[in-house]
From TrEMBL:
PANTHER family: BMERB DOMAIN-CONTAINING PROTEIN, BMERB DOMAIN-CONTAINING PROTEIN 1-RELATED. Residues 142-163 are annotated as: Disordered. Residues 1-130 form the BMERB domain. PROSITE patterns: BMERB (PS51848). The gene is LOC117005482. The lineage of its organism: Eukaryota, Metazoa, Chordata, Craniata, Vertebrata. InterPro entries: BMERB, bMERB_dom. It comes from Catharus ustulatus. Pfam families: bMERB_dom. This is BMERB domain-containing protein.
């Protein structure tokens, strides 16, 4: 039958003698499981945030490339003397200026979105910190009153690295990639 090292065996009368082995280690407490679930949820949140940042960065890079391409084309038209330009070239010049303007506006909206996301994430982090603080305070009060509560400080890998990780996200990455110091802007 099944190995019984550290596993809870539950016999179900409905199974007529068949053994059902619990996946839970008998030394694992509900607090341990909740802590692990919390760590997994936190890692998932960090990955979702990172995916969002990468999508913003990708959009920004593509916008910058397109702006650069259009500016190059516009510069070729601008070097021609005005009296030597055909009507098509003058019209193309106007179209290019309008396209560049539209792309710059789109990029501005993108930067605004990144800033909004950064502020929303900061608020979520603040709420989570307050929740954890209240949870830790409750467990401290329970321990002080003599109630047997086994709590341990849980720090996920994402939480351990969140300070340096968060310092270079969103708007900062856009600025470095193709932002305010970008040569094409």
């Amino acid at each position: 039958s099944f190995p019984r090292q550290g596993l809870d065996v539950i016999l179900s009368p409905a199974e007529e003698g068949a053994e059902i082995v619990s996946m839970a280690d008998s030394t694992t407490t509900i607090d341990d499981i909740e802590g692990e679930l919390f760590r997994i949820e936190r890692i998932r949140e960090i990955l979702v945030r990172r995916e969002s940042e990468l999508r913003y960065m990708m959009d920004d890079i593509q916008l910058c490339k397109e702006i650069s391409r259009l500016k190059t084309e516009l510069q070729k038209l601008l070097v021609l003397p005005e009296n030597q330009k055909s009507n098509e070239e003058k019209q193309r010049e106007e179209e290019l200026v309008q396209q560049i303007h539209k792309l710059v506006e789109t990029r501005d909206f993108l930067v605004d979105d990144v800033e909004f996301e950064r502020l929303r994430e900061r608020e979520e982090d603040k709420e989570m910190a307050e929740f954890l603080q209240s949870k830790l305070s409750k467990s401290y009060l329970q321990r002080a009153s003599g109630s047997p509560v086994r709590e341990k400080k849980m720090t996920s890998r994402g939480q351990q690295t969140s300070a340096p990780y968060m310092s270079k996200t969103g708007l900062t990455l856009l600025k470095e990639c193709c932002g305010f110091t970008c040569s094409i802007m």
